[in-house]
Amino acid sequence: MLLFALMIVLVSVCVREIGARIGTWQVTLARFVFGLGAILPMLLANGSASWRTRRLGGHAGRTLLMVLGMWCGFHAFSHLPMADAGGLYYSRPVFVLVAAALFLGERLSGARLAAVAVSFAGMLLILKPGGHGFDPLLVVPLAGAILLALGVVHTKSLLATESQAAILFYANVLGALACLPGTVLQWVAPTPWEWLLLVGVGLFGVCSQWAMVRAYAAGAPGAVAPFEYAQFVFAPVAGVLLFHDALDAATLTGMAVIVIAGVRLAQHEQRSSR
Predict the structure, then answer these.
(1) Quick check: 109 pLDDT over 80?
(2) Which of 68, 121, 197, 240 could form a cystine bridge with 14, CB 3.0-4.6 A?
């Protein structure tokens, strides 16, 4: 899971590096196009039967959530310090808990409610609403986290009838198609270095998904999940070392609160499952 966290942050680093000149739709398109290129050999080896579907509308709905969620995240990392954008965008697991309770009927236990409440307090520290440090752009990564959480819940419902290969195939194909209009309107010819970074966005994104699947296959969710919060460490470190971001005390405190709440909940769930 540490590899998953590292890959996710590397995607954000690539986005930050090219975001000042390359538009967000173009970057998001690269995520899907080069991601599809990375998984295409596997899909072809398994044959077309592995990604046939009768729920194209379901795939389209999930893809829309994922596209909009990624767009929000990429736009935020292009214009905000790594710690601020990451502290909110990486809070997706908190919103998954809420969305799963609302739409899948999963039980929201006292421990989960406490974790959600504490995490929301951490997000408020990062947002600083009503304070001098509030930046309206901070709402964008928060919206991205919510949209991705809804996409995760939609994925769970699709898995009842759809294969993982089908979900991967349609997410990347439909995602690329959804990004085309915006990309055409704001197209910028990338330099060789920018092409390399765009490929990195796709490859690191696919590698992060592979690492997450492998981590959960190798260990119990309660033991693995806390390591996902390594993103909250890697992001500000990358921001300082690579982009000379200034670290804000309220943002770091908010990130620490979210991490503590998430790790404590994962440990509680692991003990409860024994």
Answers:
(1) yes
(2) 197
